[in-house]
Amino acid sequence: MEDTKIVQMYWDRDSDAIVHTADKYGAYLRTIAVNIIGSHEDAEECVNDTYMSAWRAMPPHRPMILSTFLGKITRNLSFNRYKQIHADKRGGSQIPYVLDELAECIAGTGSVEQTLEYDQLVATIDTFLDTLSTEKRVMFVRRYWYNDSMADIAGRFGKREKTVSKSLERIRRDLRHYLEERGYRVE
């Protein structure tokens, strides 16, 4: 079913919207949640919460790209759940590794919002990502948005984990320089 029809079902308060959403995007949303949380049970709970959040958000919101809208909800719910259950004690999550890798690019002891204007930072990073080849951009997004493991990314591109790791290291280094050149403080 087309996304516009699914969104309209939400607007019409047709409960089948959730069924169609789950059929079309359930696996995608579970992947996001599992990569962040590391637990299938908790991930399933986040995905179900995503459906309810989407139900509450539409109307008044009419997302232009349903997959991105749902993915962002799932990602935010999963990060909140991760904080709540301390997934690093339970194992399986990529969050500690991902955050450690990105720590060298973004400065500050407080949140990004306290250190600099969040929207401006996002726009700057988006501009940086536009300078990368498609492969490198996808690697970066798979690692730092979807929280994929190095092994998953390597498998996706038919590369060795070490090669992916080195590529991401270079991208982070280049991002760091890119941000510094634009006046952002990095540590």
State the low-pLDDT regions, or none. 107-116
- Our Rg estimate from Cα atoms comes to 18 Å
Binned strand content: under 5%
CATH topology of the largest domain: Rna Polymerase Sigma Factor, Chain: A
Largest sheet: none
| Number of individual domains | 2
Determine the N-to-C terminus distance: 47 Å
User: What is the 3D shape?
Assistant: globular
SSE string, helices as H and strands as E: HHHHHHHHHHH
Tally of separate helices: 11
What is this entry, summarized?
It contains eleven helices and no strands.
What would you say this structure looks like, in words?
This protein is an all-alpha fold and 187 residues long. It has two domains: 3-90, Orthogonal Bundle (Rna Polymerase Sigma Factor, Chain: A); 95-181, Winged helix-like DNA-binding domain superfamily/Winged helix DNA-binding domain (Arc Repressor Mutant, subunit A), CATH 1.10.10. 74% of the residues lie in helices and 0% in strands. It is globular and about 50 Å long. The termini are far apart.
